[in-house]
Design brief:
Shape: globular
Strand content: under 5%
Largest sheet: none
Radius of gyration: 11 Å
Helix content: over 70%
Structural class: mainly alpha
Order of helices and strands: HHHH
Number of helices: 4
Amino acid sequence: MNANPVLLQKKYARVIGLFAKKNALTPDKALGIFYHSELYKLMSCGISDMHCMSDEYLAQELADEQRTRS
C-alpha cells in the first residue's frame, strides 16, 4: 500500500523530530540517521505498511536499529 506523498513526508518529519528529542540529537543529525536507515527504506517503499505505525513506534524502531548498528 502506498501512502500519499505529502502525508508520508509529514510522517517522516514527526518521526525524525521525536527521534531527535528522545535521543538528544540535533534535527540535522537525526535527519541524516533517518534517511540512511533501513526504516526509511521500508517506509518509502511501502513495505509492511510501516507508514501506518505510530510515530512513537517508528522512532523506537529507528533507535533500536541504531543500537544494533553500533
